[in-house]
Amino acid sequence: MAPLTASSAATSRRTGASGALQTHPPFPPHHPSGRAVPPHRYERIRQVLSAAGKTFFTWFGPVPRVMIMDPELVREILSNKSGHFGRASLSPLGRALASGLISYHGGKWAKHRRILNPAFHVEKLKQMLPAFSACCGDLVGRWENLVGQEGSYELDVWPELQNFTGDVISRAAFGSSYEKGRRIFQLQVELTQLIFQAIQSGYIPGYRFLPTPQNNRIKAINREEHGNKNAGMTSDEVVEECKLFYFAGQETVSVLLTWTMVVLSMHPEWQVRAREEVLQVFGKNKPDFDGLSHLKIVTLILYEVLRLYTPAILIQKITYKTVKLGNIVYPPGVLLVLPIVFIHHDPDLWGKDASEFKPERFAQGITKASKDQVAFFPFSGGPWVCIGQNFALLEAKTALCMILQQFSFELSPSSYTHAPRILVTLQPQHGAQLRLHKL
Ligand code: HEM
After folding, report:
1. Which atom of ligand 1 is nearest to the CA of 385?
2. 257 contact partners, CB below 8 Å, separation of at least 6
3. Ligand 1 atom nearest 169 alpha carbon
4. Are 340 and 314 in contact (CB under 8 A)?
5. Cα of 415 to ligand 1 centre, how many Å?
6. For ligand 1, is residue 242 a contact (CB within 6 Å)?
7. Nearest Cα to 427, choosing from 189, 217, 191?
8. pLDDT tens digits for range 107-154
9. ∠116-119-121 over CA atoms, to 5°?
10. Which atom of ligand 1 is nearest to the CA of 78?
11. Is the CB–ligand 1 distance for residue 386 below 6 Å?
12. CA distances in angstroms from 211 to 135, 207, 215, 217, 218, listed in the order given
């Protein structure tokens, strides 16, 4: 794809009914606030990034913040062999969204990670597969009803997929407490929006204590989340685990699946190839663990979507001690930002076609997909690597297989607008309106 120019950004926002969707739209012409970035400003961001090189620093209030785009350095930080890097502390607003493992440091983190690891082992994942396919069966059944006699139906698949991934986490994590988990997910969706409104309107320490309508609602949500007693686990434990999993696992997989359906609508030839593979391996039967582990085309597609529309767009770490990275010596307390989304789109690493959807680039494996060095970090890496990555891939594959078995889909020519924006994860700002056709 050619570099984004003022006119291409302007025309890319509304994709329209024509075959223009066959090319991959520019990425992302949007400001984190959700407002469309005027094309000249987006161009400016690109210029600053290319002029500044792969490592540059800015101030985050009084804290120096260094952007690191060199995959070699990113790997060094994530591997943390020196032990000199740590997790950046969450702001009070961030902590209100998610605590638990993701917010712990040092010994407490290591202990909790050890306790949680076994829950994500292959044998445990195999046991979760029936819950994945039951939830997906509900989703597909619902869509079959909507499609009805007409044979096709148009809907925004994003909230549908959010409900699906919420159901999966609720069932997998809470079993019979599933309804309680579900309510907390609904509250978390509202809480995320309120907190990001607060962050975007300028974060002033202490402001969250003022009795504004937004702050009052945040408090009311917290009261409702922590208010009920639950046998077995303490209420607070249920709530904190649920909030973490909502944050870490529900939203990420739902946007992954949403972008996958969008991209497969833009590239019907890959949709056909994926369906052929699924039907060849499973027919119309429920996917099983071994079959899912051996899918090739579906895996290539998911990797390429994770590269182009990486759900977690950046990772932050902090220097604990004086440490040399590349040619630069950093003092303790420097915030290191690893902008995964930019690394995944860097033409120096991925070639001139970096912005194009080309799942075949992963055909020889992740290590050979980019030039010279590994530059694919959707799940982070090293000791902090996402604990749920296999869970996420198994869930996404199950859902994609069951959807492809029953439906073909295309973008709604009248309602779909391609507008990736950042609101914690990379989300479709105007939804993902697709037309489903029953096969
Ligand atoms: C496509 C889906 C997902 C993506 C892209 C993703 C990505 C990530 C990333 C980038 C991190 C940060 C690691 C770091 O701090 O360096 C992370 C951490 C984490 N993720 Fe995921 N994640 C996904 C799905 C899931 C799922 C399904 C779960 C749980 C069921 C999960 C649970 C966690 C937890 C608990 C952490 C914290 C790990 C720790 O601090 O030790 N994630 N994830």
Report:
1. 13
2. 161, 164, 165, 396, 399, 400
3. 30
4. yes
5. 32
6. no
7. 189
8. 778 887 887 788 889 999 999 999 999 999 999 999 999 999 899 999
9. 115
10. 16
11. yes
12. 40, 9, 6, 9, 10
Q: Is the CB of 166 under 6 A from ligand 1?
A: no
Q: Is the pTM of this model over 0.90?
A: no
User: Is the sign of the CA dihedral 268, 274, 275, 276 positive or negative?
Assistant: positive
pLDDT score, position 207: 59
pLDDT tens digits, residue range 232-287?
445 565 566 566 776 778 889 999 999 999 999 999 999 999 999 999 999 999 99
Amino acid at site 320: Y
For residue 387 and ligand 1, the question of a CB distance below 6 A is answered with: yes
Write out pLDDT tens, residues 348-398. Answer: 999 999 999 999 999 999 999 998 789 999 999 999 999 999 999 999 999
Q: Report the binding-site residues for heme.
A: 386
Determine how β-strand 63-68 pairs with β-strand 335-338: parallel
